[in-house]
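Two proteins follow. First one:
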Amino acid sequence: MILIISVLPALLLAFGFNSLLRRHEYLLYGFGICLAVPSAVLAAEGIPAGLSYPVQMLLAVFSKGGLAGALFLVVMFTGALPDQSKARKKLIPIRRQLSILASVLAIGHGAGYGTVYFVRLFTAASELKTVMLSAILCSLLLLILLLPLCVTSFIAVRRRMKPAAWKRLQRWAYLFYALIYGHIILFKWHAAQKGEREAVLTVILYTAVFAAYLGMRLCREAVRRKKEDLILPVLLMTFLLTAGVTAACLLPEAAASREAQAFSAAGLAQLPDTNQNADEAGLQAAKTPAPDVLPEENARGLSGSEVAVQAVETPASDVLSEENARGLSGSEAALPVAEAPDSDDYFPEDGIYNGSAIGYNGRLKVSVTVQDGRISDLALKSCVDDEPYVSRAVDGIFPKVLSDGSLQVDTVSSATSTSEALLKAIEDALGSAGGN
């Protein structure tokens, strides 16, 4: 969605303001810097919550590098168009300006997200998953390549270089384009493998776009070398590339669906046996006395169900003390503690406190209202993570925390990273409140 929205202003700028870009390019670069600075802030701090969806998407076009990526696509495809193309003749004179503008916006995007990702890379790399680590390294390589490519695109710098040296350096742009694709795919791959529609569509769309560029570029080279017989194999290769990535995104989702259906069918088929086994186990447990834990009940000859009720009503601290006295292992002694409710957290100072944590894509912020020594309200202030994960995590975590009065709640399985970050942000806020 961000790519589609971003391409429209990029094309409008390239075709509608063509002459302006040629005459006043430095004015354009200044405008780019004015956009890059707030974009970096939004990338680092997150888009404020509570804004309408159109406004959030508009801000995402800048903070998530959408416009920069769209401008780079215009630059890429301009070089792949046939020489006699009208679009190529119109865009070639401003290709350099578009490239510099895209670089300025991309640096702002990278700097903002770098405050989160690059810090994690150099301080907690062992905690990163392989895909995320690869995505961050790809981003770092992008910025390393981008700086010399951008600087040498200025006329004043280019004139100081030998033509052959400048051309050799600019050939690194092809690697840069490949890294753009890798950067996007790696960040979306985890969600795409889970079958998230937005991520799947993003991976397929970008794969199709970059495969089309690769095919056009190779076809142009084949025509230049007068080897037109290679055009059909090239087109077939690009099609297979797109189809292969699409299948890689969709097959895990289909397999998961089939596995869930098979598991459900198998569970229904085995349900009577399971219940029978459970009944037999319960009967056997009821017949077997608990010699040390409940001696009184054994003497009184209570039924198995009454024994179970008495065991549940026994305070966790008493059970723990008794098991410590009996010398049980650490795992056995810890069991009652894990089952005990954790609803006695107390926060002495009433007020509204802010906290933050790192989610899947970056930093998120929450506000926590403490009233009468308990959490009375939670609100998401800003977040960098993508939808629908944010909404799922908020809808799953906030009500549980408010109802339980505790942070010991389960995360949302389809938004684990964002859920964990919300809980850490609430904990961070309560830490400033002096809570337990």
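Second one, unrelated to the first:
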Amino acid sequence: MKKSTVCMAALLACVGAAQAQSVTLYGLLDASVGVVRNPTASANQVTVVNDSAQSSSVWGMRGTEDLGGGLKAGFNLQSDLRTDTGAGNLYMFRREAHVNLTSAEFGEVRLGRTMSPAIANAQGGVVIPSNSIGVVTAAAVGVSPDFFTKNAVTWYSPRVSGVQAVVQYGFGEQAAGSSRARKVAASLVYQDSNLRVGVAGQNVKDRNGNTARTWYNANAMYTLDAFKFGVGWYRIERGNNALPSVTETAASTPDQVADFDTGMTIRSSHGYNLSVGYQVTPQDIVAATYVYNNQDAALLNIQGRYSLSKRTTAYLMFGRAFNENNNGTGADAVRFSPYFQGATGAAGVHQSVLAAGMIHTF
């Protein structure tokens, strides 16, 4: 009887612990088929099965624990995968790997790798955010290494009267100096039922402590009945170091390759985006977005999405990239791609894509 009582108490304790800790396996899969015109300067057309044209295909685990007194502890681990090949990234939790503490009064603090607040704000003026708009723009202007910040302390303020601030510091962990290889980013966003306005910026130091790049963005979105209107501005200022301060090789660690300015010799530039959309029904929306860069490059994206269910969305997309000859043919040229991961931007070539795909979340 005594042994049975002890066993029952242990079982109840385990059940209580499981209930207190909530862990969720989650993910998103995006796959499409696209026909690309002028995929290179010498090729006419190619048809590809592509991954993550709209949303990044990911899987992950996250959990929370109620500590009482309005305080919660949690974690998030998130990894890439490719629906076209099944491949993953160089290292597993490239996107998110952090623990956090959350309070309604003080906001949230994250310790570890997480997204840059400047990147999170970058498509605030795009009606339907898309990798074939935002990520290809980041790659074209040379800030693609800045999506996720390692060794980071990130604070998300409580939302007060619609306003939230995010501040992030990524430690460089270089013994020669605390400012070497560090990243600093911040954003400030106001949002209500009809209006969203955001500003953000990020500064990146190389391993010698020199500024690799500083960049900013500002944007707004306004909803008027079934219509949505967006506008955005961005500016990238390249540092004095035209080349990476440390030569990266195949033997370099994955975090070095992903997080520093490896090969990011693209010139300084600035530009804007204009976006308009119409909510046809609660299930489907259409939108068009134009992105301009002052280095004679531009991108047009037109798409429609239809919600087949709560977790499944079908989409049809047309994209066109305008990379003029005046943009140059060197490694520092700004070149847009019309189809994320499905085409590489080519100098002096107008490329286009017509793609259909599906997004499923779990």
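SUMMARY FIELD: Confidence is low (pLDDT under 50) at residues 1-18, 242-258. The longest helix spans residues 2-20.
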